[in-house]
Amino acid sequence: MREPATPPLLRVQGASVEYKRGDRTVVQAVNDVSFELRPGEIVGIVGESGCGKSTLAKGIMGLAPLSAGSVEFDGTPVGRLGRRKRDERLLPVQMIFQDSAAALNPRRTIGAQISEVIASRVKHRGEQGVNVVNEIADLLRRVGLPPAAAMKYSHEFSGGQKQRIALARALASKPRVLVADEPISALDASAQAYAAKLLVEVCRAEGIALLFISHDLAVVRAITERVIVMYLGRVFESGPTRGVWAEPKHPYAQALINAIPVPDGSGRRPETLVGEVPDPSNAPAGCVFHPRCPVRFAGCDTEEPVLIQLGGSRAAACRLLEAPAGPPLAAVTSDS
Ligand SMILES: Nc1ncnc2c1ncn2[C@@H]1O[C@H](COP(=O)(O)OP(=O)(O)OP(=O)(O)O)[C@@H](O)[C@H]1O
Ligand code: SF4
Ligand SMILES: [Mg+2]
Question: pTM for the whole thing?
Fold first, then answer.
């Protein structure tokens, strides 16, 4: 008999997020995204700037209202936060982001800021006998800082150290899911590898599911088990990272992966991705990637592809996977 699959901790179903610009145009920043995150899984979200990664993260956290679909953590719907205090049942879903370090309060010690989070958790869970001082010291140690850091203020730390403090503060709520939006991109190149490794080690050690959002494909490849490739708010491809890297099915995923500089010291990019991500308020008809797609064919400018399940937990949304390709459309050029 087959073992039943572990139930998902986070379930995102058909999630869409719209923004309204000052001129009343509607920006469909996230469009019908679905995926699940299981306990302890490390999943990457990649895509060029503007493809909706941060908006999806905000939708998951209840920081941006969903215009359609749903997000559930452990069976609890994550609703829009608005002015309401965040539902305490959602304390185990925490976010760290590029500016987490900047969000530290410069007028309070690091220890005071972490203790606030511990106090909130203790109250919510009705925990007894928690030694806050010891716990702060332990949290700081887990992120590679001495316990004495608790007595200091954020300006006394480097960017990398501040990001570790932000991680310690997130860990204080004993998260089961961490949504990390570009958590290392504000750091120096030398601090990035350490920060990514630490994040993964902490999540592995504690069985925390990690959603790692980044435009740094090399890091995503190194640390994630599963990857979701987004474009203009949509999922274009998803699957085990290793399989997607070895044989990306979607032309966009192929182009992104081929655009990673070759690590041979030449700095050479094997292929370039032509053009820019279009404005989501004015998305191209048909397949939204067709103006840039090197293998587009008849109908790609009118028919929208659906996400097709390909087996082996893989999925991709390209008409090439639906039916044999028809005649090619005009070749893609840098100004198409
Ligand atoms: N508050 C907002 N109002 C209107 N449009 C917005 C708002 N925030 C984001 N957008 C638009 O939504 C789209 C998705 O933006 P988002 O920040 O989610 O992308 P991203 O993938 O995180 O990009 P990056 O890699 O640069 O962080 C973009 O076109 C962006 O201009
Ligand atoms: S549907 Fe057409 S345009 Fe879109 S990625 Fe596939 S081949 Fe390219
Ligand atoms: Mg972003």
Answer: 0.90
